Sequence to fold (458 residues):
Amino acid sequence: MMRKLRPHQLEAFEYTLREPNPALFMEMRLGKTLVAIRRCMLYRPQCTRIGLRVLVVAPNSALGSWEDELTEEGVPFFRVCGSKRERKKTLDIFAVINKPIPMFFLINREAHLSTPEMKSLLWDAVILDESTFIKNFAKAKVSKYFVNNFRSVQHRWCLTGTPAPETLLELYPQMKFLNDSFMGSTDYWKFRSKYFNGSRDGSGWQPNKGVRRQIETALAQRAFVLTREAAGIHIPKVYENRMIEMPESIRKQYDRIEQHMEIDEDNSTIWKMVQWQWLRRLCGGWIDDEEIWTGKRDELIELLTGELKNEQVVVWYTYNREIDSCLEACHEANVKAARLDGSVEIEEREKTRRLFQAGKTQVLLVQQAVAQTGMNLSAADTAIYFSEPVGYMARKQTEDRILDTEKKSTLLYIHLLVENSIDEDIRMALKMKNWASNLLLSRAIKGAMYARLQNRVQ
Fold:
């Protein structure tokens, strides 16, 4: 049965019927992905022999949500990933003409480096999800690639909850991608010169007097802008998976542990639980006491300084080393963060909690064992699972920490998951059933791991 669009989604959908190049600037958890899919499916393909072709460009971590939504809608899609040869092979499916059906192609935002030819294909629509990745037109090559290409595509989309997280100047590349101009200007430098001035304190370019109102008016006329509060959302829970891809060198190390139960020639085990701990810690970036990659940590900081910049967030951890690293990264990124783990005295924990509840701290990094029960962290309506607790009740109790029956906003739970790893196995097992015991859960994780390995072999 087709899912029913909520009232604010219907309003957004009606906007997209009028606008050939939509900008859905809707806060997270308002369902803009589904609106985009439904609208694109109504487009008439430029080439009827091959059918509708839609390109979705997004961070790796956001592509999983697209896969879920497209699967739910029954729409065929292809993930353009892997080596350059594998990406090209997937894009070759574009021109299959023996059965003209709609197809979505999902690709990460860095793909312009390895797959530049995608700009030359006859796309019916190109969607930039979390479109602020093209915000830095002055310096970033990725911004110039997307802004300067795809001009002949009939429908171009920008999707994000925070179109200008740092400065109003960040709006220009997104609006130029859509319309080739914004507020009468087709040139970024002329736009900046006309409407902005360099601040004396060195904090960057600031809008001239009255410009902020002009930009807000222009944006309101051009884009669909919606906050959760304006949508009248009431306490539903939304679950999102953010996928992180391992670098090749880390993947080799991971495969060695998974397949041979050894870190190196001098460090091996016969115990499955030890192996699982090694795999989980490696997903977080660690082997023993050494941090060897920062994929999850970097994704977390991008969320906290981008889509979740103005929100209070609880981040859940299993390992204290991960908290150490993330707290340092938060400080470097000027994110107000504090920690709650076994190293913090009980009285200090309560002080830290009160400061968070009072809005003095944006982010709380929490070791799940010290706060999974009885602690009120309801100042946040977003929880991120950096390393998910392995246990149904532990997981459920951490969810309840941000629950408040008086809230009027959706609760968002984000899982940071390394692709093709034990992270996905644990998430799958927890999602399948409310397990009565951790023993049954561990068996389910083992089964999920086996199934994933079989799929990789195939």
